């Protein structure tokens, strides 16, 4: 949710619900429980991002009228100048020593200048290391000392009901911390990104929070805040974050190669419906059913067939076609993946090599 500056700014008055009397991460101070020590620990790793973008100028049709040009003394060779647009977002320091910062692709897309401001008020010109539109991840780099990074959590272990903090730069007001819980995990099919496996949270997220941190009460980064459902333009308690495991897989490729090399195994898949599970004589099965296998593809060479059901990728359970697609899409081209497949009522493991594939376009249809 990159926040564009405008002459008028809407100020939202939000009422925070009282925190439970004693929950993990809180510390008793003067007989009251507070998150202040945790907030003090993690906020230095979250930065504000300011971008400048040159937007093409739209010429007034009257400028094509010779009489209009003559009357207002407009030169014949006059050309409208591009307009400079300023926007704000957030980012998270991932590597303090090397100055790497993780943010959203839509925060910096099209920017000709990117500036990063740290919690202690220092501002640096940032270099774009690389970006991946399909997952909405971008990596920046700054040259600075005395930075602080956030330790990474394991987003595969995030559960509904976990307490979280959302840290970012909403409405360009400056660093802001909100709290809530994980409302859902594995959200997909929203039409926001090419690859979706979102953590949903009710911690307040607003325009300008994009690229900011979703932190658990252990002080670990578990997600990158990226989008909201916002019928009124502000927070309504439904926000989405990219799981850090997905973000890190993309980040590692960007740092190593400047881009993401995305591949495929050559199968068409669908969710394993109850009807299909009954047809396979395994009502308890879960995973992604293979609808067809491309001739000559890595999947065919490995021995996969129509009707097989993929239940694990590299040992991690797969519950849907979207999960399988996301998992395979994040594995670099040329690497091998171990697929646990339900075949003829028995589980078998197949080793498949990822082949070069086509890029998946993002589809940001929710509020950004």
Structure description:
- The protein has 368 residues and is mainly beta.
- The chain folds into 3 domains: 37-141, Trypsin-like serine proteases (Thrombin, subunit H, Beta Barrel), CATH 2.40.10; 155-257, Thrombin, subunit H, CATH 2.40.10.10; 263-356, PDZ domain (Pdz3 Domain, Roll), CATH 2.30.42.
- The protein contains 7 helices and 24 strands.
- Strands 1, 4, 5, 6, 7, 8, 9 and 10 form an 8-stranded antiparallel sheet that branches.
- It is globular, with a radius of gyration of 24 Å.
- The model is unreliable at 5-21 and 360-368 (pLDDT under 50).
Give the helices and strands, then pairings.
Blueprint lengths: L2 E2 L22 E3 L2 E3 L1 H7 L3 E10 L10 H6 L11 E13 L4 E5 H4 L4 E5 L5 E3 L1 E6 L4 E5 L21 E6 L7 E12 L10 E4 L11 E4 L4 E8 L10 E5 H14 L5 E2 L2 E5 L2 H6 L8 E6 L4 H5 L6 E5 L2 E2 L3 H9 L6 E8 L2 E8 L1 E2 L12
Antiparallel strand pairs: 1-5, 2-3, 4-5, 4-7, 5-6, 6-10, 7-8, 9-10, 11-12, 11-14, 12-13, 13-16, 14-15, 15-16, 17-24, 18-19, 19-20, 20-21, 20-22, 22-23
